[in-house]
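Example 3.2
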Amino acid sequence: MPPELTALALSALLLLVQLAIMAVRANLEIGPGYFLSPRDGPPPKPLDPGTLRLKRAYDNHIEGLLPFAVAVGVVSLAGANSALTAACAWGYLMARVAYVPAYFYGLVPWRSVVFAAGYLATGLMLIAALLGG
């Protein structure tokens, strides 16, 4: 499997892990009753700030995963795989892994720096595919 596809698969697994961690924390804080309901109303009590940060990091990963998946697809379908696109793919994955604790612990400005690294890696992959394909 090309490294770009491996990084994409691992990024999707990371998303699943993020969801599981966030869901377990939320269930422990609020109880399963709310999450088993249709959730037509607000939660019985607010979530802990850490859990809310995990939720925002998860949401951010979903937003970043779509363009990254497109970049991997374009690189793969165009046959534009290179050392640069592989490095960008691994860079994206490392940035996503680092983003979770950076967001959870409120590391300013590092959270934004890590986000920018993943964002730039995705953009660079697309540019490389366009220039090499």
